[in-house]
Design goal:
It is built from 6 helices and 2 strands. By secondary structure, it is mainly alpha-helical. The protein has 2 domains: 1-36; 49-188, Cytochrome Bc1 Complex, Chain D, domain 2.
Length: 214
């Protein structure tokens, strides 16, 4: 059956109307809803230069493929709260994030509040260098190229030396963090969204500040 000019016009018009409606629902409406979102209180700060560099390192190393940054609402799934990953994330938590690194895989734990669960800079550096030295059986890849191995006699005052567990330390050798490693850890230590969504109201989903294995 041959489609006439009028039927063709209606087909194109209908397709454009559907496209416009879908764009409005999926793009325009969310933009209008989120356009006035701002950080809650004064707890959330802009990233420092080191943290921004570390965030870029986080992206370049593909961390987002194995780690999420979005604790889920316990009303839908209580596992995140039981693991101590923090309250459900809200839009304002990502105010300074460009792009957002929500993640879709959890080969490793959610990192939205890793700075609270594991606040030790030395732990993070050592964990990056050799994850299995801190978490036996971990499937996280090691990042030794973010560090330098030098003779212990050549360590300078400005070096940040990693204190590895005895079983992983090499006698006479020092493992020194490069600026890339330090920036990445600075970013991880900025991952703290435990402030209450409503200022002055503490939530049960907020993790306690204690050191845990990841």
């Amino acid at each position: 059956m041959k489609i006439g000019h009028f039927d063709e016009f209606k087909l194109v018009t209908g397709a454009m109307a559907i496209l416009a409606l879908a764009t409005s629902i999926m793009v325009v409406v969310p933009y209008l809803l989120l356009d006035k979102v701002h950080p809650v209180g004064t707890a959330l700060k802009p990233y420092s230069m080191a943290e921004l560099k570390g965030r870029n390192e986080y992206v370049s190393q593909g961390c987002v493929y194995c780690h999420s940054q979005q604790p889920r609402d316990p009303a839908f799934n209580s596992a995140d709260q039981e693991r101590g990953w923090g309250r459900p994330s809200v839009a304002s938590d990502y105010f300074y994030d460009r792009p957002h690194l929500l993640g879709t895989m959890r080969t490793g734990p959610d990192l939205m509040n890793i700075a609270v669960r594991q606040p030790s800079k030395d732990w993070h550096l050592g964990h990056l260098y050799q994850p299995r030295a801190y978490t036996p059986g971990s499937n996280m890849p090691a990042y030794p190229f973010l560090f330098e191995e030098i003779p212990a006699t050549e360590v300078r005052k400005d070096h940040v030396v990693i204190n590895l567990p005895p079983d992983f330390a090499v006698e006479g050798t020092a493992v020194v963090a490069t600026p890339r490693a330090l920036d990445l850890v600075a970013y991880l230590l900025a991952m703290d969204r435990t402030y209450p969504v409503i200022p002055g109201l503490e939530g049960d989903a907020m993790p306690k500040k204690k050191t845990v294995k990841e």
